[in-house]
Amino acid sequence: MANMSMTKNPMPSQDPKVRARNYDEVALGYSEDQVKDEAARCLNCKIPHCVEGCPVNLNIPGFIKAAGEGDFDEAYRIISMDSSLPAVCGRVCPQETQCESRCARGIKGESVAIGRIERFVADYHNAKPADAVAKPEANGHTVAVVGSGPASLTCAGDLAKRGYKVTVYEALHTPGGVMVYGIPEFRLPKAIVAREIDGLRALGVEILTNMVVGKVVDVNELRQEYDAVFIGSGAGLPMFMHIPGENLKGVYSANEFLTRINLMKAYQPGSHTPIKHPKRAAVIGGGNVAMDAARCALRLGAEEVSIVYRRGMDELPARKEEVEHAQEEGIVFRTLRNPVEIMGDPKVGVDKIKCQVMELGEPDEKGRRKPIPVEGKFEELDVDVVIMALGTSPNPLIRKTTEGLEYTKKGGIDADEATGQTSLENVFAGGDAVTGAATVILAMGAGKKAAEAIDQYIKNKK
Amino acid sequence: MVRIVDMQPLNPTLTKITLEAPHIAKKVKTGQFGILRVDEDGERFPLTIEDWDPEAGTICFIFQVAGASTERLNHKKPGEFIADVVGPLGNPTELEGETICVVAGGSGCAIGFPVIRELHNLGKDVDAVIGFRNKDLVILEDDIRALTTNCVVMTDDGSYATKGLVTEGLQSLIDSGRKYDKVITLGPLPMMKFVCQLTKKYDIKTLASMNPIMVDGTGMCGGCRLTVGGETKFACVDGPEFDGHLIDFDEAMCRSTMYADFELHERDEACNLFKMEVK
User: Fold this and answer.
1) Domain boundary at A331, A356, A388, which?
2) Do B255 and A215 touch (CB under 8 A)?
3) Looking at this predicted complex, what is its ipTM?
4) pLDDT tens digits for A152-176?
5) Structure pTM?
């Protein structure tokens, strides 16, 4: 008998006041009973629209059914057929706009908590000692993967499972890409990412760190050495607003602020990585990265952290859950504010930010209401740290060094949406390097499609 | 892990370290840099690659103890390991021009040397002005003299060679009738600022080698940004050399002090730890 409750089992989480001062994971995860109870809300629809909503087309009703029966090993087996990083996706996917947005239960009431069940299943599996993974039989072909974020790791994992010898080239000293330098510990514990990476190593994937493709080796060299190349090098250079005062001390890009905290562990007492501990911080932007930066600033001990965003609350591009978590923790949302100047003594650093007050006008072609300045109305805010979370522009390193690789007008690598095929014969690409900044799961979807296409390409060449 | 092949003190403040990094040694060009991390929990910091040997698979850096990480590095011995080295990063030095003067100060002379060597190997007419605080800190004088037409050595306190600043040395060469296609300057920010002011007066194209605070070195963090000709540039991917007449040096100097207090404190901590070990 299905559980006809209109609402999801609530996610147990740390008290907002406590967690705002620590880096432990915010969401604590369901208990076994909660998972079974939540799984019983699934109607096991004949045509499961949730699957269409998933970029990697997980067999969602399948794993929920197994979880509902308490067979979590089977549930994990079903998930891992399509996903290389279930513990990651259960935590950071925007389910509300993907699988859960298509759920039949969501028509009246709340959808099934697909992400929370997935997370439980993955954590259940990961809590057990790792099974000795049977290394797939080598097929004699080699693939180079550039970068080690979600697109690259998915592509590497899928190919390794098919017997390819995969070598990953990572520019930083730790693999994981945005999952280690960007997404904070309290949202995605680094131990989980490390565990997923160990799983790939067990499959025979070789990961080379400190290798900047485009510098120490270029794509055309990799093309000669390997049967195929996948480029998942991620988004690029952080964007700035080009307003006065932007290079004052205390102004960070979100990438730098988060990298210092996450990858370089500046949040740990006694860390050797310097970071400015803000008293009052302003984060410019309204996406997930802005929420992460704001919540990190709070955890560094800030008295007040504001999100400054030029549109309204309804237009925030961040996941709903991230906005709610940020609000619960006391982040102040100063919406309809557009920074025009950052002020301060160049020798000391930032002390104020001046914002133009905005109002919402007519919807633009995408249906989003456009922010327009309210003439003559400005507001000043006392801050000592400003964090720019405005997105990124493409990284020039590979572009400059790879003759024949074509790019789109927006600056991403020009790659076929279905296959990841680029303008170079044995070169494929996916993730943020193609689309610009997006989500972990979309990158994983691209990595998965590219793995399939690379497999086809190499088989056809034989 | 990266093996240390050799450590050679050059003077009381500078040490030359040779690392095993065959993949970097094969690719590096003059003017490029590497990023090092001494320990597993250490910070990442950039240093210009001073020399390399593709046959032996080694690269060299010259460093000055400035903070905790360089303090730790300074205590390493040949045969030991550091956590990471990544490179070659940044763009190689632009080498065009026939008559070129390299103006370098302090540890900037260490990274000026490979530039001079490269220009010399290309058959160019090279002068050098090298400056140091005092006699004890003079490095590479003979090596540089051997590769240059004129080599002017300056010390701040006059304890060796000519007393004065590198700008005075450059001025004397200009006054002697030397006409330069280009000046390349490497060293502390205030020094480079004044070198650029001088060359601007004579309209000599000048490249300044910038070494701002950096994290990843691949363009991802934007921490190394500076203003060049009114535009925001990233030293790691757009530089590290820029047109010295367009750089906002005052801003760069302010930004370089962002973590000065932290560095001082960290270095003291590291020193104390080593003192305890010695005891």
Assistant:
1) A388
2) no
3) 0.90
4) 999 999 999 999 999 999 999 999 9
5) 0.91
